Hints:
The protein is mostly beta strands. It has 4 helices and 11 strands; from the N terminus they run ααββββββββααβββ.
Amino acid sequence: MTDPNPPYLYPPYGSTPLRAPAQPLVMPKYGPDAIELSSPVFGHEELGILDDDLTRQHSGEPLGERIIVTGQVLDSGGRPVPGALVEIWQTNAAGRYVHLRDQHPAPLDPNFTGAGRCLTDADGRYRFVTIKPGAYPWRNHHNAWRPAHIHFSVFGTAFTQRLITQMYFPGDPLFAYDPIFQSIPDEKDRERLISRLDMDTTVPEWALGYQWDIVLGATPMEA
């Protein structure tokens, strides 16, 4: 199986030349297991009752298209991973993050912070209610726009066991112009990052549903 992850250095993605390692990686002398023994672990008490519903975290409803995003976290053998902490963050419907560094001229939504989390259930399944994010400019190159996406972080039982990736939406015309998406070498691996519209998940007259599974070792990591 080939590595599905993007290379550390991918010149079309402008920040990678600044952060890609110039020398081979060095494993700590004490080994990775020693880090895991003292790293944080996560439990049910860390979660709030509205952490998985980004549309109900404020006094009013956010603007935009309400969606449901759900799927399973699976190990490399296809087995469900229960009890994994899944976090998401995203722009609002206008394509703007709630972050001081995001100053592009799109409106902020006082009823949408754009962050959520949940624990996978016994079947490794997660579920979020949110707003479909908007595309946004990012100045990587002339007229650069990111496709609509949701960032995902999946933790294991220790702080060092973490996968960060992105979920995209089907049929986005910006895929061909996005060097982050295109940095993944294999087309089939890129397709693993695209969710699918699912009418069984969709709630009539309320929210469209999208299914997206995360397979550890196969779903590409974020560039």
